[in-house]
Amino acid sequence: MQIKKSAEDYLETMLMLKEEHGYIRSVDIAAHLGVTKPSVSYATKNLRENGYITMASDGMITLTDKGMEIAERIYTRHKMLTEFFVSIGVDEEIAREDACRIEHDIHQETFDALCRHAGVK
After folding, report:
1. Could you tell me the residue ranges of all domains in the chain?
2. How far is CA 22 from CA 16, 27, 50, 62, 70, in A?
3. Do the Cβ atoms of 9 and 71 come closer than 8 Å?
4. Fold classification of 5-69 (topology level)
């Protein structure tokens, strides 16, 4: 099943928040992504319906195995691409922005070759 870039961004953000805070809340997702709470509500509803997350009665969000797999893939790409761009002299903020754009579209074969070239993996 193909997942949209925006859904990947939400899942990646959820993983980052889980690592940073130990929990995932909608309000933190909204703040991190710079979107409204209703936008997060709509996105989490879709992610929940498609089996990527679960939500407890207290509003805490948990990534399912399916959601975690996608979040880890995107987050790994983001970190590696950012580090690579910085290592070749790109400003860190620009490197992060570019990594965020590329992480969704880069083919796995290309990403693997880039990792080998950079001596990662």
Report:
1. 5-69, 73-118
2. 9, 15, 23, 11, 19
3. no
4. Arc Repressor Mutant, subunit A (1.10.10)
Six token digits for residue 70 = 């996608």
From residue 109, alpha-carbon distances to 42, 73, 106 in Å are 33, 14, 8
Rounded to whole angstroms, how far apart are CA atoms 81 and 48?
A: 29
Instruction: Tell me the CA distances in angstroms from 36 to 10, 27, 75, 78, one per residue in order.
Output: 13, 9, 22, 24
pLDDT in tens, the chain (121 residues): 457 889 999 999 999 999 999 999 999 999 999 999 999 999 999 999 999 999 999 999 999 999 999 999 999 999 999 999 999 999 999 999 999 999 989 999 999 999 998 887 6
Helix (H) or strand (E) run with residue 107 in it: none
If one looks up domain 73-118 in CATH, what number appears? 1.10.60.10
This prediction's pTM = 0.88
Distance of alpha carbon 20 from alpha carbon 17, whole angstroms: 5
